[in-house]
Specification:
This protein has about 130 residues and is α+β, with helices and mostly antiparallel strands. It contains two helices and five strands. Strands 1-2-3-4-5 form a five-stranded mixed β-sheet, with helices on both faces. Strand 3 (about 60-65), helix 2 (about 80-95) and strand 4 (about 105-110) form a beta-alpha-beta unit. The protein is globular and about 55 Å long. The N and C termini lie far apart (about 40 Å).
Length: about 130
């Protein structure tokens, strides 16, 4: 007989939340080093949440940040369902951040200790 999956404890959720926030700060710092301006963080919409909104020139990126304990776990950190939610949220947010002539895309930044950030540009092609 198999057990149902365990729900994370409150401590585990707090730890994951703190790791996620650290990852988002690191991703924002890394993007700024690459010439991006961070326009907003953790923007919630009825369609979903966007971790970072960034601009470089006429390009607006809606960025999903995933932090994992090991580099091997990064290969499974993002899936099509999660990207679709970010893309739906980005569509809601476009009028707020993008002007005429701006290009828009959904990016992903993957982070794990001891590795360079992995920036997947234009991760959602919908």
């Amino acid at each position: 007989m198999t057990r149902p999956p365990r729900r994370p404890t409150a401590d585990a959720r707090r730890t994951a939340e703190a790791a996620g926030r650290r990852g988002e700060r690191l991703a924002g710092w890394w993007l700024r080093l690459k010439g991006w301006s961070i326009l907003d963080r953790r923007v919630r919409t009825p369609a979903g949440e966007v971790d970072l909104v960034a601009r470089r020139g006429t390009l607006i990126a809606f960025v999903e940040v995933k932090t994992r304990r090991t580099a091997a776990e990064l290969d499974f950190a993002i899936d099509a369902r999660r990207l679709a939610r970010v893309a739906a949220a980005a569509e809601v947010l476009m009028p707020r951040y993008a002007g005429p002539g701006d290009d828009i895309r959904v990016d992903v930044i993957l982070l794990a200790p001891g590795t360079r950030p992995r920036h997947i540009e234009n991760a959602w092609i919908g």
